[in-house]
Every structure is written in structure tokens, then in C-alpha cells.
Design goal:
Elements: E1 3-7, E2 10-13, E3 18-25, E4 33-39, E5 46-51, E6 57-59, E7 67-72, E8 77-82, E9 91-99, E10 106-109, E11 113-118
Parallel strand pairs: 2-11
Antiparallel strand pairs: 1-3, 3-8, 4-5, 4-9, 5-6, 7-8, 9-10, 9-11
């Protein structure tokens, strides 16, 4: 059974920081591509950042230089460090695990954690 459990969301003032965590079980975490997505009210879910098993990263332009995605394979955990937060970062943040050893790749999602940035 695959489980992704996010934590670390909350209310923060603009300019502040939060660190999201996602603990994963039930998959070969070390070879999975991990990602963080977000969905603001009335908007589509968007990709925030991804991190491959080899350490390659990708970020949406709006968070480059402010957010950092990392992983700890010993703890089966992926993190999203969010600095210099802006009100437009307010959204529900979701963790995703992509298992590329399957065809088609298998994608599993966490339940989401709310991030609210006040101005």
C-alpha cells in the first residue's frame, strides 16, 4: 500500500519561510521521481518542483531562487523549503511520487497540506 503523508503547512506572513515534508511508504523511494505540486482556489494544480533519483531538479519560474526541493532516501522523505513566501504562494501543496519503472509510470499523491501566506 502506497502512502504519502505531507506535513509542515500553516499560516505565515509574507517574507517568511516554511518547510514541507512528505514521508513516503510502499514504494522504492530511492528510485522514484518526487515532486511538489500546488493548487490555489479556482486554479488548476500546477507543478512546483521535481527531484529525480539522480538529484536533478526542476522548478516553476515563479519559485526559482526561493524554493528548494531535497530528499533523504534514508528517511523516505522529500522536503520543500520555501523562503521569501508571497501571498500568491497560498495554495494546497501536494507531494507526488512517480515510479518510472512501470509502463506507464505510476503516480501516487499525498492528501495535501495548506499553506497560507498573509500580506
Amino acid at each position: 500500500q502506497v502512502q504519502l503523508v505531507e506535513s509542515g503547512g500553516g499560516l505565515v506572513q509574507a517574507g517568511g519561510s516554511l518547510r514541507l515534508s512528505c514521508v513516503v511508504s510502499g514504494i522504492r523511494f530511492s528510485i522514484a521521481v518526487m515532486g511538489w505540486y500546488r493548487q490555489a482556489p479556482g486554479k488548476q494544480r500546477e507543478l512546483v518542483a521535481t527531484l529525480t533519483s539522480g538529484g536533478g531538479t526542476n522548478y516553476v519560474d515563479s519559485v526559482k531562487g526561493r524554493f528548494t526541493i531535497t530528499r533523504d532516501n534514508a528517511k523516505n522523505t522529500v522536503y520543500l523549503q520555501m523562503n521569501s513566501l508571497k501571498p500568491e504562494d497560498t495554495a494546497v501543496y501536494y507531494c507526488a511520487a512517480v515510479q518510472t519503472q512501470f509502463s506507464p509510470p505510476r503516480v501516487d499523491w499525498g492528501q495535501g497540506t495548506q499553506v497560507t501566506v498573509s500580506s
